[in-house]
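Let us practice reading a record.
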Amino acid sequence: MATVGQDPTARTARSAPPALSAAAVAGVLHGAISLYWASGGDWLIETLGQRLLDAFADSRWVLFPVGVAKIAGAVVPLLLARRGLLNRVPWRVLCWIGALGLIVWGGLNTVVGNLVLADVIRPDGGYDHAGMVGHAWLWDPLFLLWGLCLAVGLRRSSGHQPPSMVRTSG
């Protein structure tokens, strides 16, 4: 029953699993640094690696849409959960794809980067130390953290399993 002056069709904010908030923080941080670099900032830019810096030296503007996409991808699952929309199949599937992609990308690159730094893997022609450290210890672990938090948040929201595991009755 609506109280006087209250819109009975208005959606009420719902709580979201804390892991979705943590995922949003990780993704917004990742996106914010991309926007910072796109705007001409140089702090930590050497952690991208010289090859990337050379490739995009005259086109840092490309990082604007990248940063916006990261931030959108970080906050949309949290907003969907708070609006009670995260369990709608298209959103849930998209979020699980994002979580798994972040986990695979961040996890593999973190492991490989650390194996290179430990001299277990030796790339032909050597490697850019600052770039490898940046990817092995900062950017890819942040992708991994973002993905893991998103997956935990999805699991703890009311649809408890990845879409491929959801049982249907019939």
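A brief commentary: Helices lie at 18-38, 50-55, 63-82, 89-117, 129-156.
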